[in-house]
Each structure stands twice: as C-alpha cells, then as structure tokens.
Amino acid sequence: MKFERRKTREVKVGNIIIGGNAPISVQTMTKTKTADIDATVKQIERCKQAGADIVRVTINDKQAATAISEIVKQCSFIPIVADIHFNHIFAIKSIESGVAKVRINPGNIGSEDRIRQVLDAAKEYSVPIRIGVNSGSLEKDILEKYGYPSAEALYESAIRHVDICNKYGFDDLIIAVKSSSVKLMIAAYRLLSEKVDYPLHLGVTEAGSYESGTIKSTVGIGTLLAEGIGDTIRVSLTAEPEKEVEVGRQILRALELKQSGVEIISCPTCGRLEVDLFSIVKELETAVKDIQKNIKISVLGCAVNGPGEARESDIGVAAGSSCALLYLKGEFLKKIDEKEIVNEVLNLISKANN
Fold first, then answer.
1. Last residue in a domain, options 254, 279, 295
2. Which pLDDT does position 62 carry in this prediction?
3. Residue with more model confidence, 191 or 353
4. Which of 316, 315, 319, 314 shows the shortest CA–CA distance to 304?
5. Domain span at 56
6. Which is deepest, 44, 124, 325, 347, by most CB within 10 Å?
7. Domain check: are 174 and 275 in the same one?
8. Contact 174, 203 (CB under 8 A)
C-alpha cells in the first residue's frame, strides 16, 4: 500500500531533493562542539554510514562559524546544514562557507533587516532556508495573542516569516513547526499542509531519551507521514545522532516509504518458545546493521504462526524445539539446528543479489 503524498514544490539541498516526488530524506544533527573539526567530521561520517541523507551542525559561536568552512570541505559526501540562533552574521558566514542549507528560528533571529541580509546572501549563493518554528521560542506578540503555544500560533509564526521571505523575492524555503507535544506538533503540521505547498520538515522537538523519544517521534512523524504529510524528517533523541538516523529509517521502512536496509521481523514470544530467540534476534540485528540490501527477514519462535509468516519474507525462520525450518522466498529449504540459525541467515543474505 502506498500513501497518497501531499504535492509540494522541490527544494534542492546539495545533491538531495526535498519535496516533489523525491524520496523522504532522513536528517540528524551533530552533538559535538562544532569548533572541534576532527570530532565533528568523524561524527558526520558515522551518520552517513548509518544512512543519513543530510546532517545539521550548530553554528553557535565565532569558533564554530570559523570551523564550518573546513567541515564542509571535508564532508563533501553529504549536504551540511548550518543551524543558526540569534546571530544573523553566523548565518551569512555559513552561507559563504558553502553550507547546503541554513536553518533559522524566526523567533530569535532578530529584526526584519537582519533576516533580509540573510536572504540576500542565500539568494546570491543559491542556498535554501528552513524556517524552523519551535513552540518553545515563539515571538512574544504571537504568544500574547494566543496565550499559549497552539497550532494556530505555530502556523502564524511560520507564515509571518514566509511572507517576509517572499517580500524580498525569496521562496526557496522548507518549513518546520515543531513541538515537544506530539498532539500539538501533529495539529500544526496538518494546518500548515492545508495552506502552503512548501516542503515540510517533520520532527518532535526535544522528544526525550532513546526509548521514550523513539515512541513520541514514531507516533508524531509516523501519523503525519501516513497522511501524506512530510518531505524530510529528523528524530530528536537524547542519544547519539546515528541512533536518530536508525530510528528515522525504521519509521520510513515501517510505512514502506523507504526500503533501504535489512528489515527483521520477530515475534513477541510466549510460553511456546523453545529457542533463545532474544539472543538470536539481537545477534542478527548487530550483524546486519550496516548492510544496505533490501531484504525482509522473519524470525519466529512458535509453530502456530511461524511457518506461515516465515514464507512471506525473503528469508524466514520458524523455530521449534532447539531447531528451525528455514525458508527462502516462500520455499522451504531445510531444517537447521538452533545454533546454525544466525550463520545460515547471514549466508543467505550474502548470496542475495539486491
């Protein structure tokens, strides 16, 4: 089943297209001190290896603004986005340093004249801008108008700055209206998607730890994607950025919006289980983490649903009493010992063509 995706205009971020019919991209953000060029570049490399399409870097002081040029040079393999708060000069310097996009928070970037200066530089260097509205940093007058962060408040903040950009002849834009509240975030994006055709960057901001943040992000981002809303995503976790990428890719895979990488389906287990399925699945997940082949693997631990579900995957394992039935593309291959499951599955993956 394919979701009918909302039609948006295309925006080019480096070599990645956001919007239109382009695949939904996965973003993350570095968590190093940007001035530490070596550490930042190494983290970006790990993010790329994990499957990130775009990486954002904070430019929060003069040292970071100086370092970004070298970071961009060393990371030509992936588009780098400059994340700017408060200081429009850092935005201009980042644009001149070759970043692929600039993210600004309208609530704290300053006067309209400062925004105009950033727009002039972005236009000169053909760099798109993401208007990043956040419920925690809305403009004072908007907060006073609505009394609290609401979907309408987030929408008004975004449109205010879209109008400023359009006033100065700039429309190479992506919009985000994030909140740590999943319900508010969903409502704001729904409202925005009805009014504009700009590409939307989805995310639940400050989602939390790996466990709780994954759940909140999956509910928020997944709900909108299932409604056809969203062109690029970032999962915000109190965890390494590679983990954010992995969760983002899993969200897309669960909705069949991205089929890059090995997908493992495993049963929740019950009293019928007669093999160490927990260890088997954990070992398989570790072994296939960096494999980019599009393969679906089922590892089931009971005789009730196991054989039927195993036949529906590219590679299927239906475990019984210290042994398992092995399937390939729905066809039974052989019966194997419990200790052979991981090696047999990995061997079949290595022989797969895709």
1. 254
2. 95
3. 191
4. 319
5. 11-254
6. 44
7. no
8. no
